[in-house]
Amino acid sequence: MESTPPPTGPAVAGSLTLTRPCAKCRTQEATLDSRSQPVCRACFVKFISGKAMKQIGILGKEIPTTRTNATRRYVLGLSRGVSSTVLLHLLNENVEFALGKARAAPFDLTVIYVDSSCLYGSKNADHDPLAPFRARFPRFTFRSVSIADALGLLGIDWSALPSVDPTLLPEQRIWSFFSALPSAASRADILRLFTRHVLLASARSLDAQALLLGHSTTALAELTLSETAKGRGFSLPWVINDGGVEYPPAGSGSSTEGEDRGRKILVYHPLRDALRKELSVYMTLTEPPLTPFVAEGAVTALDSAVVSHKDLSIEEVMFRYFAEVEESYPSVVANVARTTGKLVRLLGGEDAERKRGCGMCGVPLDGEGDERWRGELGIRGGDEEEKTRGKLCYGCERSTRG
Ligand SMILES: [Zn+2]
Ligand SMILES: [Zn+2]
């Protein structure tokens, strides 16, 4: 369709005269715009689901089913925002499609919602935010896991973090930990990292081979720039690319034997080729629309990561920036994410995994890499720095201590 010249006059399809024919099928009236082309609803839906199915197919090939491994087990991180809700819908379509062809379901899926409502003081025990999801997607298993679970995870080095009163209940403890962080930007940053930890730990405990995240092209581009701005650019290949991570990371306090031993989990972003605004449109086009499933306010995807609105976090700045860029220059957004995708994991697979990782984000602490960022962004001194030296990367140290 890229090579098809734009129509010069009314096109004729059967006996119908189309005033604005779809640039892809040319038989339907275009009602939407997709990457500067007029398209019909059916072609738009096919375009988005095709992009996701391609990625899900790539992942499936990474995990071949054999006699000893008869089932692929995936975990989906659901934030109840647009992207992860759309991904949930597409994964369901994928399963329905296989079953409709009398084939086995291509994977088992457990959907994990990391509940951070205790940080907002808005905990409502009677309200199950997952109830509508369970009703709509009965084939999948849904679980809500509290962000307070981060307190017990081996992948986080709590000895390197500001200490919290151990006599408090877990949800109070995590609340006071977040309250003591230096800024809204720090809270958003640490909440994102803890959420990732809780998801990876859940995937590991469920013996899942892959963790699926809903990040769109736009979200990955935002993450690229915000992580770079925070001095964690070194971590990008682990955060943006699809691939395996060991959880808990080597040297993170986990023993090398038995229960606690790290296991490789593939982290995939099947919506990496779709723009955020496209997913917002897609959400309205499914039958029935997914719109009511998306958490109130999460349409902007902002507040899910922000505890206080006092100041703008880097994430918010990036969000606003890319909302504008996406509108006029979608290819710029795609290029940011794609260029990062080409970065290699500098320390290389096996070797990197044996090195000690940052106690917060898990990225291997390479003396040179970390020092490079430290040098560019300034050095702090004092006892606090001594306590964390060598345990946290520069970005995580800044986020927890300012
Ligand atoms: Zn069409
Ligand atoms: Zn770190």
Automatic annotation (TrEMBL):
GO terms for cellular component: cytosol. The keyword tRNA processing applies. Pfam families: CTU2 (PF10288). One of its GO terms (biological process) is protein urmylation. The gene is NCS2. Belongs to the CTU2/NCS2 family. Its main location: cytoplasm. Gene3D superfamilies: HUPs. Keywords: Cytoplasm, tRNA processing. Plays a central role in 2-thiolation of mcm(5)S(2)U at tRNA wobble positions of tRNA(Lys), tRNA(Glu) and tRNA(Gln). May act by forming a heterodimer with NCS6 that ligates sulfur from thiocarboxylated URM1 onto the uridine of tRNAs at wobble position. Prior mcm(5) tRNA modification by the elongator complex is required for 2-thiolation. May also be involved in protein urmylation. GO terms for molecular function: nucleotidyltransferase activity; sulfurtransferase activity; tRNA binding. It is found in: Cytoplasm. It comes from Cercophora newfieldiana. The keyword Cytoplasm applies. This is Cytoplasmic tRNA 2-thiolation protein 2. Pathway: tRNA modification; 5-methoxycarbonylmethyl-2-thiouridine-tRNA biosynthesis. It comes from the Eukaryota.
